[in-house]
Amino acid sequence: MSQFDAIATISPLPAKFDRCVELLTAFALSVQEHELGCLRFQLHRRFDITLNGTSDPMEGKLSIDLINLETYVDRAAFDQHVQTNAFKTLVEKLTEEKVLREELVIMGAEPLAGFGSRLLGLQLAPLKVTIASSKVISGEQEGTA
């Protein structure tokens, strides 16, 4: 079995943007705490990028649309995710409170090219701390024992 990626697009009503983010933030915390098969669950605010020769290609117009990037250990973990009470409660609240202007869309995504992260193979060196004015040995300052 291989990793499974999903992309959710969430389109809240302008007046309900803050409530939508609040609901999704609480849901993300629940996923982090209870769904060990979920490797990544990140909510993003979409913005448009204009590549018109300006000095800053990241200049973009903020949108009220949200995108959630999700990665699971496998498809079964995603299937379990959408069956949780937390997910069902989220969908109920989004519907009952009329938070969305368009239907929630969740798409599976299959990687075809590129790489996921340069951080995967990165090994961090142990932290070495040096204190110039006082040296600590076994929890006691040198010269006091």
Structure description:
This protein has 145 residues and is an alpha+beta fold. It has helices spanning 17-34, 75-81, 85-96; strands at residues 4-10, 38-49, 60-72, 105-109, 136-137, 140-141. The strands form two sheets. It has a four-stranded antiparallel sheet. Strands 5-6 form a two-stranded antiparallel sheet. Strand 5 and strand 6 (140-141) form a beta hairpin. The longest helix has 18 residues, at 17-34. It is globular and about 40 Å long. The N and C termini lie far apart (58 Å).
- Structural classification: alpha+beta
Q: Tell me the span between the first and last alpha carbons.
A: 58 Å
Sum up the overall morphology in one term: globular
What is the H/E order? EHEEHHEEE
Radius of gyration: 22 Å
How much is the average pLDDT?
82
How many beta strands in the DSSP annotation? Answer: 6
Concise account of the structure shown:
With 145 residues, the chain is of the alpha+beta class.
Q: Could you give the topology of this structure?
A:
Layout: E1 4-10, H1 17-34, E2 38-49, E3 60-72, H2 75-81, H3 85-96, E4 105-109, E5 136-137, E6 140-141
Antiparallel strand pairs: 1-3, 1-4, 2-3, 5-6
Main features:
single chain, 145 residues, alpha+beta, 4-stranded antiparallel sheet, two-stranded antiparallel sheet
